[in-house]
Specification:
By secondary structure, the chain is an alpha/beta fold. It has two domains: 180 residues, Rossmann fold (3-Layer(aba) Sandwich); 144 residues, 3-Layer(aba) Sandwich (Rossmann fold). Helices cover 36% and strands 19% of the residues. It has ten helices and 15 strands. Strands 3-2-1-6-7-14-15 form a seven-stranded mixed beta sheet, sandwiched between helices. A hairpin with a 5-residue loop joins β4 and β5. α2 crosses α3. The longest helix has 22 residues. The N and C termini lie far apart (54 Å). 48% of the residues are buried. The structure holds 6-O-phosphono-beta-D-fructofuranose. The site of 6-O-phosphono-beta-D-fructofuranose has 13 residues, from β12.
C-alpha cells in the first residue's frame, strides 16, 4: 500500500451547516493522528482548475477556536461548472476534466476527501476514475437525499431552522387570525418539510412525494376553524406539485430554472377558495446558514474522522454513512444508485397522519 503523506479536502455543491465540523474532524485525525499534511482546496473542484491550485494548508491550530461552530464552509463551494461540461464565457460548454485532474497531480496529493451531495459525488467519482484519484467521500446536503446514509450533514440543522420558523409564525398567526404558509427547501425531496412540519405543529404538509387536492387542503383548514382555532400553519416543500402535477419554478437570469413560488401559489389558492387572510414565508437559504446543531457537529466530526481512517486503511471509492447508530462506509456507487425520497407509508408519514395533519391524498392509506 502506497504511503500517505498529503491529502486534499474540498467541499462541493450547496453549502450547509456542519461542513466546518467535517473539515475539523479530518484535520485532527489526519494531522494529529497520522502526521499527514492536509490541503484544503478552495471553491470546490474549481480550486483544482486554478494555477497554482487554489488551496491552503490546514493545521490543527486553524480549528482551535470557533471555526467548527460556524455555518458555511471555510473552503468555499460551488454548485455550478461541471468539469465535463464546463460553461465558457462564449456560451459553449467544454470538457475540462483533464485540467481538474492535473490540479490534483500538481498538488502531489496521495488521496482526496470530497464532501458533497449526490450531484457532486457523482462528478467527483467520475473525475477520480478518470484521473486515478484515491478518494473517499462524505455526504452533506440539507435535502437528506443521498442514498444509504440515514443522515447527511446539514439536514438536522435545516430542520431545526424550519421548525423554529413555525414556532415564530404560530403566535403571529394566532394574533391575526391568519393562515401561514411556510415554503421550505429540499429540492425533489420532502424530508425537511415533513420533519419540520411535524415538529413545528403544522396542520398541513405538502410534499412532492404525495399528491394533494385543493378540497383536501381547504377542508383541513375549515376543520381547524370549525374546531374553534383561529389560525393554521401550512408547510410546503419547494418541489411540491400543484394539483394536476404542475411544478412551480422560477426562471433565472441565465435562462436556467429553479424551484420557487409554490408557497405563493398555495397562498392564492387558499385566499381564492376561502376569502381569508393568508401570508407566505419563503425560508430559502436561511436553512443552510447559521451555526450547526449539535447533531450536525457530531455527524460532521464523526464522518471526518472515519473518512481519514478509510484513507489510512487504503479503502477508496467509498462514502462514509450513518446507519443503525453506527458510522459505516459503502461504495460510492451504491450510495449514488439510491435517491431516498419520503416514504408516503414510512414512520414519519404515519406519524403526521396519526396527528391529524393533512399530508395529501393517498387514496385511503393510513
Ligand atoms: O440542494 C440544496 C439546496 O439548498 C436545495 O434545497 C435548493 O433547491 C437548492 O440547493 C438551492 O440552490 P442555490 O443555492 O443554487 O439557490
Amino acid at each position: 500500500m502506497a504511503k500517505i503523506r498529503r491529502i486534499g479536502v474540498l467541499t462541493s455543491g450547496g453549502d450547509c451547516a456542519g461542513l466546518n465540523a467535517v473539515i475539523r474532524g479530518i484535520v485532527h485525525r489526519a494531522v494529529g493522528g497520522y502526521g499527514w499534511q492536509v490541503f484544503g482546496i478552495r471553491q470546490g473542484t474549481h480550486g483544482l482548475l486554478a494555477r497554482p491550485v487554489d488551496c491552503e494548508e490546514l493545521t490543527i491550530d486553524r480549528f482551535s477556536g470557533e471555526v467548527f461552530r460556524t455555518g458555511g464552509t471555510i473552503l468555499g463551494s460551488v454548485n455550478q461548472g461541471d468539469p465535463f461540461a464546463f460553461p465558457m464565457p462564449d456560451g459553449s460548454v467544454v470538457d475540462r476534466s483533464e485540467e481538474f485532474i492535473a490540479g490534483y497531480r500538481e498538488l502531489g496529493l496521495d488521496a482526496l476527501i470530497g464532501i458533497g451531495g449526490d450531484g457532486s459525488l457523482a462528478i467527483l467519482r467520475r473525475l477520480a476514475i478518470q484521473g486515478g484519484w484515491k478518494m473517499v467521500t462524505v455526504p452533506k446536503t440539507i435535502d437528506n437525499d443521498v442514498g444509504v446514509t440515514e443522515n447527511s450533514v446539514g439536514y438536522v440543522t435545516a430542520v431545526d431552522v424550519a421548525t423554529e420558523a413555525l414556532d415564530r409564525l404560530q403566535p403571529t398567526a394566532a394574533s391575526h387570525d391568519r393562515i401561514m404558509v411556510l415554503e421550505v427547501m429540499g429540492r425533489g425531496a420532502g424530508h425537511i418539510a415533513l420533519a419540520a412540519g411535524i415538529s413545528g405543529g403544522a396542520d398541513a404538509i405538502l410534499i412532492p412525494e404525495v399528491p394533494w387536492t385543493v378540497d383536501g387542503l381547504v377542508g383541513k383548514i375549515h376543520d381547524v376553524r370549525d374546531a374553534g382555532r383561529n389560525f393554521a400553519l401550512v408547510v410546503v416543500a419547494e418541489a411540491a406539485q400543484l394539483p394536476g402535477g404542475v411544478e412551480v419554478t422560477e426562471t433565472q437570469a441565465d435562462g436556467s430554472s429553479r424551484y420557487g413560488g409554490v408557497g405563493h401559489r398555495i397562498c392564492e389558492i387558499i385566499e381564492e377558495r376561502m376569502g381569508i387572510n393568508v401570508r407566505v414565508t419563503v425560508l430559502g437559504h436561511v436553512q443552510r446558514g447559521g451555526a450547526p446543531s449539535p447533531r450536525d457537529r457530531l455527524f460532521g466530526l464523526t464522518f471526518g474522522v472515519h473518512a481519514v481512517d478509510l484513507v489510512a486503511a487504503g479503502r477508496f471509492d467509498r462514502m462514509v454513512a450513518w446507519s443503525n447508530r453506527q458510522c459505516i462506509d459503502v461504495p460510492i456507487e451504491e450510495a449514488l444508485k439510491a435517491h431516498p425520497l419520503v416514504d408516503p407509508y414510512g414512520a414519519l408519514a404515519v406519524t403526521a397522519r396519526g396527528l391529524g395533519i393533512y399530508l395529501g391524498d393517498l387514496g385511503g392509506a393510513s
